[in-house]
Amino acid sequence: MQEQDNSGIGDLSRRGVLMGAATGGLLIAGSGAMLAPSANAATARLKRGGVLRIGLGSGSTKETQDAHLGGFTADTARQYQLYDRLVVRDSKFGLVNELAESFTPNKTGDVWTIRVKKGIKFHNGRELTADDVIFTIKRVMDPATGAVRKSALAGVDAAKLKKVDKYTVSVGLKAADVLFNEPFANYAMGIVPVGYNAASPVGTGPFKYKSFTPGVKSVYTKNADYWRTGEPYVDSVEMISFPDETARVNALISGQVDAITDLPTSQISVVKANKKFKVLNAKAGSFVPIVMNALKAPFNNPDVRKAFRLMIDREAVVKQAYAGNAVLGNDVLGYFDPGSNKKLKQRDYDPEQAKSLLKKSGVTLPEMELKTEDDAAGMLTIPQIFAFNAKQAGVTVKVTTPSDFWDGWPGASVFSMDYYLARGYLDHAKLVYMGGGYSKETGWSNASYEALIKKAIKTTSTSVRNEIIADAQKIEYDDGAYIITSFYNKVDGYSAKIDGFGTGNPEGNSLNNFTLRSVGFVA
């Protein structure tokens, strides 16, 4: 959760928690400033105008529309309407420029030059310039902001953050980081103008702020001067919070909303069978890990950690928790990273070997409490599968859902669940292992691993860097403290009356990273 680096969940709603499931009974019966609309065949048959209504799986009075805070699903949805980022992830998880015309390092990776596109205007009519980029970076770095991605900019040398010209910024780093641009694609890294006020937010995004009631509803109107030619299609967007998934699905079916996030797996086939609705099923790098705190007994013993990784049937997780809408995980981060080590043997369910490792460890296990909360798909089901499977290894696991689940996070729990969206491997490793905002969650450290990560961050050759990442993943696979059973798809539902979502985004945010600018009503 947050470092108040708040950066990982938003990895959905846990961040919001730190800022302060039943499924039955459903009523299912370029380089220039101006770019063309998103490449999507559906755009040719979309008409302009109308009010697009989105049902969100959130509902907290602690929600925000601040560009650099948040973590609830609704927060992320708002941020993608109000703000744009310097770079974004494409449908193949590649990094592409958005507001940036270029975002490039020097030969050693310790100085980066950012040049923004000319002619892009904020909602207040003022042109985006280098001053706004500098203001945004400083705001994220400022501890008083409590920004979600503060730790991602910890390597910036404030004294070497300089304006080169009206549209160009030079960012000097304390040490080389050849992937420094990756965190700028995060949902909570929107570029804001000098003097930004979150109470009356201004960005360069496709929609402008009209009203916001935390936990209830948000309304945004079309930005007629949006820099992407032809977008957005609709006149306004209304976002309505439905923390209860039954109510959310019913809102879609009854026509109260046009699209919803987080379609329950039990309803996917039902919605698919109804011609009035469609399912957006995006292969994503989201995952729900089982967390072993390596600083506390019994998980300070590596043999115990190895044993627990053998105690769960991963194929059962894919089938039962996600109805097949997931792929097997292998206890390492970075599913989509080009350096991901595909040579690692798939870890299988092996209760007998787990027994042997526990015997070798010499540790006598008490009844283990596995804490969780219903914050993301699989967070309730996976613990139950683990508890059932662990019995075959002679281990008793009690699954609990305490009301204070996130209190003291990260680091307070011994054995618990969490959830994350997709990130590049090094970006994620820095966050959860290398002293980043979430590193206390597992407390896991390994000198050889950390040396490899530090080396990779400075390595300019992509092929060499990927080899280093693969070596680091082998250590994580052998010795780490996350049980990553699977990477699950992001599944949302929407009315056949609208289109333009494309095929989805692998980052794991709903509705193709909430790219509502490309969505409209079918003509």
The CATH homologous superfamily of the domain at 289-484 is named Dipeptide-binding Protein, Domain 3
Q: Give the helix level as a range of percent.
A: 10-25%
Estimated radius of gyration = 23 Å
CATH class of the domain at 289-484: Alpha Beta
Ends apart, CA distance between termini: 43 Å
Oligomer state of the chains in this structure: single chain
Number of strands: 22
Written overview of the protein:
With 523 residues, the protein is an alpha+beta fold. It has a domain of 196 residues: Dipeptide-binding Protein, Domain 3 (Dipeptide-binding Protein, domain 3, Roll), CATH 3.10.105.10. Strands 2, 9, 10, 11, 12, 13, 15 and 20 form an 8-stranded mixed β-sheet that branches. Strands 5-6-8-7 form a 4-stranded antiparallel β-sheet, with helices on one face. α11 runs antiparallel to α12.
Summarize the entry for a quick read.
The protein has 523 residues and is of the alpha+beta class. It is 23% helix and 20% strand.
Topology at a glance:
Elements lengths: L13 H5 L27 E2 L3 E6 L16 H10 L4 E3 L5 E3 L2 E6 L5 E6 L13 H12 L14 E10 L2 E6 L33 E7 L3 E6 L13 E6 L3 H10 L4 E2 L7 H5 L4 E10 L3 E3 L9 H8 L4 H8 L4 E3 L22 H11 L6 E4 L9 H10 L6 E4 L14 E3 L7 H8 L14 H12 L3 H18 L2 E2 L2 E10 L2 E2 L10 H5 L5 E3 L1
Parallel strand pairs: 2-11, 2-12, 16-17
Antiparallel strand pairs: 1-22, 3-4, 5-6, 6-8, 7-8, 9-10, 10-11, 12-20, 13-20, 14-18, 14-19, 15-20, 21-22
Helix pairs in contact: 6-8, 11-12
